[in-house]
Amino acid sequence: MMVIQLIHFMRPGRLWWLLVPAAVVIGYLALSVRTTPRGPVTRVNLRAVLPKDKAWKRHLAVLCSVASLASLVVAFAQPQDYREVPRDRATIVLTIDVSRSMIATDVEPSRLAAAQSAAKSFLGDLPDRFNVALVQFAASPQLVVPPTTDRAAVSTAIDNLEVKPSTAIGEGIYSSLDALKLAPDDPKQPGKKPPAAIVLLSDGATNVGRPSLGAAQQSGKQGVPIYSIAYGTPGGYVMEDGQRQPVPVNHHELAAVAKASGGEKFSAESLGQLRDVYKSIARSVGYEKVYAEVTDRFVGYALLLAVLAGLGVISLAARWP
C-alpha cells in the first residue's frame, strides 16, 4: 500500500485506458466458463483424440499479456515515484579509533589492520567527486587528512595509522565536525556546503574527553549523520604487563551516538562483515532519494511480462518431437 500512495501520475487521465485490459479479462473469463454442448454419443470426440493443452499455461499466457498491457497504460500515464540517484557531491569524514584496544587479534590479523584494509576498500566504493577526510582519535583527536578527492593521499594516511592509549569518541566527533568546515563549497551553490556524514569506527567506550552523546547531538543539529560501526568481538583482549585485559565492544554507546545524530549503527566482528558494512554505508551516503518520473520502470515490467506471455504462447502452439 505504501508504494501505491507514493506513486503519482503526470497524466492521470490516461489511466482510463486501464479499462481495456479489464475488458479483456472479463471477456476471457466469460469464454472460460462457457459450457460446450454435448454432441451425440456416436459423434467422434476430437478432444479425446487431440493432445490436451495444459490449462495453467493458457491462463498464465493470458495473464501475462493483460498485465503487460496494464503496465504500458501505467507508463503512458507518466508515473512519478521516489528513486535512488547518485549524489553529485558530498563530504565524508572517516573517523577511526586508534586506541590500544585496536591491537586485539580477535579480528585477524588485528582489529586495526583489518580496519585499515576495509577503510581503503570503502574509498573505492565512494563516488569520485566525493571529498573524504580522515580523523584518528585515542586520548585526543587528530585531523590526518583534510577533505580531499585525492584517494591516494587518504589511503596512504590510513596505512600509517598507529595505536595510542585511551579512547575519546566525543573528541573524535568534534574534530570531524571541524574537518567539515574545511570542505569546499558546492560549485553549483556558492556559499553552501555539500551534504556531509561521519563514518565512525570504534571498538571501545569513552574514558577521556567530552561525552560522546553531546558531540553526537551537536552533529545532529548541524545535519551531519553519524554512521557508527561497533567493531570487534565480545572475547577481544590485549596483553598488559603479561595479563589479559578484556576489550569488549561497547555497543550501547555507539548506538546512542548514531541515534542522537540521526545516523545508523552497525556491527562487525570480522573483516568480511566490516567490508559489507562499509559497502552498505557507501550506498547510503552515495545515493539520495528524489521524486522523479519512473516511466522506464513500468516499460521494463511490460517488456518482461510480454516475453513471458510470448513464451507461454509458443509452448502452447508448438508440437515438440
UniProtKB/TrEMBL annotation:
PROSITE patterns with a match to the protein in the record: VWFA
Domain VWFA as annotated: residue spans: 91-281
TM region positions: 56-77, 298-318
SMART domains: VWA
Top-level taxon: Bacteria
Xref: SUPFAM superfamilies: vWA-like
Alphabetic keyword roster: Cell membrane, Membrane, Transmembrane, Transmembrane helix
Protein name: Magnesium chelatase
